[in-house]
Amino acid sequence: MDKLEKTLSASEPTLVAFIHAAESNAVDVKYILEELKKQYDGRARVIRVDSSYNRPVIERYKLNEYPTFILFKEGQELMRESGEKTVGELAQLIDRAL
Q: Residue 14's beta-bridge partner residues?
């Protein structure tokens, strides 16, 4: 089990933002995720994965668009959204899993 899989198997919800560092919105996503980390500290995990040069991650999670946000709980994918999202939209995803 790799580090990412171990993180995703946690009992608390984990929102993963798969980004491509060369995309212009990668910086915006970073600030959105920082806000979510503060808001859900101790209740949910929020992480960012740069899949730019990681073909196995791209294939494993079938990433076609960036950013792609996937919410996991206990290793299971609960929800997936792609494209630009606001803090509020992503917070709603996390709230549904709490």
A: 45, 72
